Amino acid sequence: MQRRLPALLRRAAGAGPARRWLSASSSLLFDDTQEQFKESVHRFAQEHIAPHAAAIDASNHFPKEKNLWKLMGDFNLHGLTSPEEYGGLGLGYMYHCIAMEEISRASGSVGLSYGAHSNLCINQLVRHGSPAQKEKYLPKGITAFIIEKGMPGFSTAQKLDKLGMRGSDTCELVFENCFVPQENVLGEEGKGVYVMMSGLDLERLVLAGGPIGLMQACLDVVLPYVRQREQFGRPIGEFQFLQGKMADMYTSLQSSRSFVYSVARDCDNGKVDRKDCAGVILFAAERATQVALEAIQCLGGNGYINEYPTGRLLRDAKLFEIGAGTSEIRRMIIGRELFKED
Ligand SMILES: Cc1cc2nc3c(=O)[nH]c(=O)nc-3n(C[C@H](O)[C@H](O)[C@H](O)COP(=O)(O)OP(=O)(O)OC[C@H]3O[C@@H](n4cnc5c(N)ncnc54)[C@H](O)[C@@H]3O)c2cc1C
User: Fold this and answer.
1) In a mutational test of the pocket of ligand 1, which residue from 110, 195, 320, 326 has the highest number of ligand atoms less than 8 Å from its CB?
2) Residue ranges in 1-130 assigned as alpha helix (H)
3) Environment class of residue 274 by beta-carbon count within 10 Å: exposed (0-12), middle (13-18) or buried (19+)?
4) Which of 35, 46, 222, 331 is deepest in the core (most CB within 10 A)?
5) Which residues are in the Acyl-CoA dehydrogenase/oxidase C-terminal domain (predicted)?
């Protein structure tokens, strides 16, 4: 069943046929409303996020002065899965993955921060928060745990200097005799493992939009480049070796996309399968690293130079093989689930 998009997203999408950046086969995955949503997030992300991606990476600094978070909030991206009564859009994981893909396409690190905020934090509150907690925290959309800055006993350690995803700040959270009031308990007491582990399935699904966005970003760089760059009197894209790389990059992207969005659709229909949620990010993350390596290769020397975004795309892609449980752990989960099944 198709839904109507909120007015803000409709306006941003504009009228008219699907734009060229939408690959032909992505339309097999999405209905018209989802296509429209993808286009509107794409435009938003390319206008407001992509221009800052290189500087965020170089400075390892999230530009608070650009108000990206507020702009994304005004666009209602933070509350995609939140019920409308709490100011969200009440959309599902299909939409959440689409947003993650397009934001990551503009900047992997902003995508990662977005995934952590909208899924690890807000979606967990949606799933497990008491009515009072939802009332208090959802419209504001704050931390991953219901611990507030300034609470006695809670502090953060130094910002970590990372290989990639720079500007998406990461640090250790330090708890020293931190007192948590009863009303801040999320989900049932003693059921924390369930709260986090079941949330991890959905985190893996939604984060899998990240490597998809990065693979698309690789093609966004490579395709114009191989058309324009000439060697031996011909565009390098005419060489079959290069066409083979393009084919491998494209099929990696499209197979990951099909897997991710079919699992997202299942989750929206209430069928959350642990091995599939681990499977989508296992597959997409490893493909993204390979695609980023091929993107560097397609650009030759330029691919290795930081003036071009390919190095950043590789460094950002690698994170998805580690965060939200490593590839090894995902394989363990899938193997264990398959072994359990009769
Ligand atoms: C940028 C970034 C952001 C992050 N954000 C968050 C966050 O928001 N919230 C959060 O909770 N965590 C976060 N993490 C932590 C992340 O989830 C962990 O780093 C990751 O799960 C791996 O755990 P570890 O670093 O302790 O590695 P280890 O567990 O020490 O693993 C080291 C190696 O051993 C392998 N290994 C470990 N156990 C086994 C096993 N049983 N069988 C086979 N191989 C095994 C691993 O696969 C890996 O290759 C983040 C990490 C990074 C880098």
Assistant:
1) 326
2) 7-13, 26-29, 32-48, 53-59, 68-74, 93-106, 108-115, 124-128
3) middle
4) 222
5) 190-338
The alpha carbons of the chain give a radius of gyration, in whole angstroms, of: 20
Q: Which structure tokens are listed for 40?
A: 């509107």
Ligand 1 pocket check for 328: Cβ under 6 Å: yes
pTM: 0.77
> Rounded to whole angstroms, how far apart are CA atoms 311 and 302?
10
The low-confidence residues of the chain, meaning pLDDT below 70, are 1-27, 139, 141-145, 190
Q: What is the pLDDT of residues 76-114, one digit of tens each?
A: 899 898 888 777 888 889 999 999 999 999 999 999 999
**Which pairs from 85-91 meet CB under 8 Å and 24+ separation?**
86/126, 86/134, 86/135, 86/138, 86/139, 87/138, 87/139, 88/122, 88/126, 88/138, 89/6, 91/3
Dist. CA 314–CA 111, nearest whole Å: 15
Q: Where are the beta strands (DSSP E) in 257-309?
A: none
Residue spans of the domains in the chain: they are 29-188, 195-340
81 closest CA partner among 126, 116, 114 = 126
Amino acid present at 317 = A
Q: At what angle do helices 274-298 and 209-228 cross, to 10 degrees?
A: 20
Which of 257, 134, 260, 133 shows the shortest CA–CA distance to 202? 260
Domain 29-188: assigned CATH number: 1.10.540.10
| 45: phi then psi, degrees, rounded to nearest 5 | -70, -40
Give me the CATH code for the 195-340 domain, please.
1.20.140.10
How far away, in angstroms, is 156 Cα from ligand 1 center?
19
